[in-house]
Amino acid sequence: MTIVVLGAGVVGVTTAYKLLRDGHDVTVIDRAEGPALFASYANAGLVAPGHAYAWASPLAPGLMLRSLWRRDQAIRFRPAVSLRQWTWLAAFLKQCNAESARRNTEIKARLCRYSQQQLAIVTAETGVAYDGRKGGLIYFYRSPQAFAAAAEKCEILRRQGITVETLQPHEIAERDPGLAPAAGQIAGALFAPTDESGDAHLFTRALAEHCAELGATFHYGVEVKAFAHNSDRVSGVETSAGPISGDQFVLCCGVHSAALAAPLGLRLPIYPVKGYSVTLPITDAQRAPQLGGVDEENLLAYCPMGERLRLTATAEIAGYSTAHKPGDFRAMLNRAQALFGACVDYTRPEYWAGLRPMTPSGIPIVDRSPLENLWLNTGHGHMGWTMANGCAQILTDLIGQRAPQHATEGLRYEHV
């Protein structure tokens, strides 16, 4: 069976790999000139079941409201004259209650655990290298009150089988000497020893090369314009390079999925949430952080990647622009200098901004669409790197008419 995968980010390429392993002929189409050049290019790098909390929480509306006049909020709302933005926002706010946050976090945590297991399988099968680093991730808090609340909140992850330890200030530098300069700034931390990290772009690029060796066809620099279809079936896709046909089609186009699906009558509640990252050369490997983690109260993630340190911050609900300027990164760079000192070269930053494809619940859509041969694997939000391999296996099982090894609760199209 010939299956056409739309999108060559980490979700699309892992899907292609799993389908190839299942014996299908696979074609992948992407508008960029190579794999993982959009949302997967310079993301946080954390494979983080220990950070699977739903963003839609009782605290989120207050953060968004204050962001209208303050730029230091972890979630920023920039109103636009956009029906799509306001429709998505209404659905997001509907999820911002304790019960929905608990349920969504539980679903995400289980999916992240399964996906991490699948990442290990794919890595073992292919040998792809991506500056991967095991040993855990550290999530630290600056105030005793925030640390105490987090230590209580993490029970929801523990109930889903995720190991989370609490670290007192003197124990944090023992786990990662790279945080020693910040000892006086940290009240405590949560440590997820089985969490890990790595460069999603390097992983996706290497896996795409492996897929090509297995026989997959990749069309880069080709934009999907529309689906050719009748009432219940897709016959092909119209692209900038002409029509491409297949037996089955998988939509993995991130923030562009909703617009492509709309003419088919599908309503995908996906909207971009912009994030910023800066990557810096490590100049003193002994003093640099050895593990990744998150400065929770500033929502600043950091991740060592070989000879580089990646910093990411901000969740900005502002539309589809990826534009940025050096001033957008000033706050995160100042915080990084206070945390890590001079272990990196701050004069050689690589700036980037990307768009996370968020559903209101934060749970991706992994399911058959109402059209019998169109499948959905999209809407992974801020955890696409963590969730990609598991979602790819779930979708491959569904296409192969097998019961997935992981429950599809919350992932179904009719639940969105």
Please explain how this structure is put together:
- This protein is an alpha/beta fold.
- Helices cover 31% and strands 25% of the residues.
- The protein has 11 helices and 20 strands.
- It has helices spanning 10-21, 60-66, 83-94, 98-126, 144-153, 155-158, 169-175, 200-213, 257-261, 330-340, 384-399; strands at residues 2-6, 25-30, 46-47, 75-77, 137-141, 165-167, 188-192, 196-197, 217-220, 224-229, 234-239, 242-245, 248-251, 271-281, 293-295, 300-305, 308-317, 350-358, 365-368, 374-378.
- The strands form 4 sheets. Strands 4, 5, 6, 7, 14, 15, 16, 17 and 18 form a 9-stranded mixed sheet that branches.
- The longest helix has 29 residues, at 98-126.
- The model has no long low-confidence stretch (mean pLDDT 95).
Total helical elements? 11
Shape: globular
Return the average pLDDT rounded to an integer: 95
Number of strands: 20
Structural class: alpha/beta
The largest sheet is: 9 strands, mixed
Please outline what is shown here:
The protein is of the alpha/beta class and 416 residues long.
Throw out a few tags for this protein.
single chain, 11 helices, six-stranded mixed beta sheet, nine-stranded mixed beta sheet, 416 residues, alpha/beta
Please outline the helices and strands.
Elements lengths: L1 E5 L3 H12 L3 E6 L15 E2 L12 H7 L8 E3 L5 H12 L3 H29 L10 E5 L2 H10 L1 H4 L6 E3 L1 H7 L12 E5 L3 E2 L2 H14 L3 E4 L3 E6 L4 E6 L2 E4 L2 E4 L5 H5 L9 E11 L11 E3 L4 E6 L2 E10 L12 H11 L9 E9 L6 E4 L5 E5 L5 H16 L17
